[in-house]
Design brief:
InterPro entries: FAD/NAD-bd_sf (IPR036188). This is NAD(P)-binding Rossmann-like domain-containing protein. It comes from Klenkia marina. The chain folds into three domains: 206 residues, FAD/NAD(P)-binding domain; 90 residues, no CATH class; 111 residues, Protoporphyrinogen oxidase, mitochondrial, domain 2 (Polyamine Oxidase, Chain A, domain 2, Alpha-Beta Complex), CATH 3.90.660.20. The chain is built from 13 helices and 19 strands. α3 crosses α4. The relative contact order is 0.19.
């Protein structure tokens, strides 16, 4: 019996396996035929490595507090990983050289501004209509209560955002992005989980100060990448280490069954049987429940995502941007990310991803060519010279389209019902003897930082 049995290929499982092996423990990792690292592993297209859309790293603010015991990580506490940010930072810094990305930008009414959707730069709010009257601090909808307030257990995002931001800010500077990303699913988004769609929720006094050209107490939220501009190298490097480690057994074949046998769970693969009293599980929810003999749970709301991976000729770009978000109903893309600009790399052809959500799905459903439209958006957003629509097969000779990825339900839209269902499912997995990780622990716990904390906590538990 191994010291640790990990069933699944998410980042938490990889982190735990690496930490345990480094400490001299025997580890068996069964990936169930899934790419190690999941979303964070990126992809390689025609020999070019991409992150799938904007994937970045986060670091603690200076003067971070001491890290509490990892056993105290609470999946029911929103953003609990931030208490362990220094541990995440140490783990990241030990694996890759980190480089701060330029401040993302946002396009609003044809003009670029420092981004307000993800980075808390509120310059674009200057001159907008402030919320009036300001929402009273005692009102249960006040954004100060968004992490722990009881009202936020069921409060929809649109209602909370309008109450805190005021109708002008919300309608002009947030709603078009919300509609582009989520479409009709936006009506169901739970306010507490607004960051699942890169949406802000500010205090009314903060919005009022920004609209009045006054300083706000909110610092810019910084993002980081690697020297290569590829965050996926964190995963690929870790996977390579595990594959070469003498204490790690990697099995990439499918898992056939997981059943209780006495005091242990017995896991069958094509070539072996593994017993462990409490294996960690890092699989998609439906797959984990299927293997453990649990019934499926209802599928919640979700939005589609399309990611166009392409190369753009650097010397043709007149309006460069490391990351550009789009608040404009006339543009289908909601975000453009230049991985090489993010890392400050000088390349003749830059790796660029263009992301679309519900707006892209609407275009495709109406018979439009989504790939061509995203190239057209890219041309306008980066200021590429216009060209013959038939040139190069993509509409532009300075853009090489490598692949269009489409996932109809890629972006989960948390609702009060889905959050409750996720918690029930977690409790059932625990009752079956498994140790859930990633999204199996609850809603919104699949972020890179959350999974690093989970992996470190797993290593401490098994060690």
């Amino acid at each position: 019996m191994p010291d640790a049995l990990l069933v699944g290929a998410n980042l938490a499982a990889l982190v735990a396996a690496g930490e345990l092996a480094a400490a001299g423990q025997r580890v068996t990792l069964l990936t169930d035929g899934r790419p190690p690292g999941g979303h964070f592993a990126g992809l390689v297209v025609d020999g070019v490595a991409f992150d799938t859309g904007m994937v970045t790293l986060e670091r603690p603010a200076s003067g971070a507090q001491p890290v509490p015991a990892l056993s105290g990580y609470d999946p029911d506490r929103r953003y609990d990983w931030t208490r362990y940010a220094a541990a995440v930072d140490r783990w990241q810094a030990g694996r890759v050289e980190l480089r701060r990305t330029p401040t993302p930008q946002v396009l609003v009414a044809g003009r670029r501004h420092p981004d307000h959707l993800m980075t808390d730069r509120l310059d674009v709010l200057a001159g907008a209509e402030p919320p009036a009257p300001l929402l009273d601090r005692a009102d249960p909808r006040h954004a100060a209560d968004k992490t722990t307030g009881k009202a936020y257990d069921e409060l929809p995002y649109r209602e909370a955002a309008r109450a805190n931001h005021g109708p002008d800010v919300q309608a002009r500077l947030v709603d078009p992005f919300l509609d582009s990303v989520l479409g009709s699913a936006a009506e169901h988004l739970l306010a507490r989980h607004h960051r699942s769609a890169w949406l802000p929720l500010y205090w009314p006094a903060t919005v009022a100060a920004a609209t009045d050209h006054r300083p706000t107490p909110v610092p810019e939220h910084a993002f980081w990448t690697t020297d290569s501009g590829l965050v996926a190298q964190v995963v690929t490097g870790l996977h390579a280490e595990l594959a070469a480690h003498p204490l790690v057994t990697l099995d990439h074949g499918p898992v056939r069954s997981v059943r209780r046998e006495g005091d242990a769970l017995r896991v069958h693969t094509d070539g072996a049987v593994h017993d462990h009293p409490a294996p960690a599980v890092g699989l998609p929810r439906d797959r984990a429940r299927e293997l453990l003999g649990l019934p499926p749970v209802p599928v919640g709301s979700a939005a589609p995502v399309a990611v166009l991976c392409c190369l753009v000729r650097a010397d043709a770009v007149r309006d460069p941007a490391g990351c550009l978000l789009v608040v404009d109903p006339a543009v289908v893309a909601y975000r453009v990310t230049d991985q090489d600009a993010q890392a400050g790399r000088d390349r003749a052809w830059r790796r660029v991803t263009v992301e679309a959500g519900a707006a892209g799905q609407r275009l495709a459903d109406s018979g439009g060519d989504l790939a061509r439209r995203l190239v057209e958006d890219l041309v306008g957003l980066l200021g590429l010279p216009h060209a013959d629509p038939g040139a190069g097969g993509t509409g532009h000779p300075d853009v090489r389209v490598l692949r269009l990825l489409r996932a109809p339900r890629a972006l989960a839209v948390p609702t009060a019902a889905s959050v409750a269902a996720d918690r029930r499912s977690r409790d059932e997995l625990l009752g079956a003897g498994a140790v859930p990780t990633g999204g199996l622990l609850g809603t919104g716990l699949n972020s890179l930082a959350d999974q690093v904390v989970q992996g470190l906590a797993l290593a401490e538990r098994f060690g």
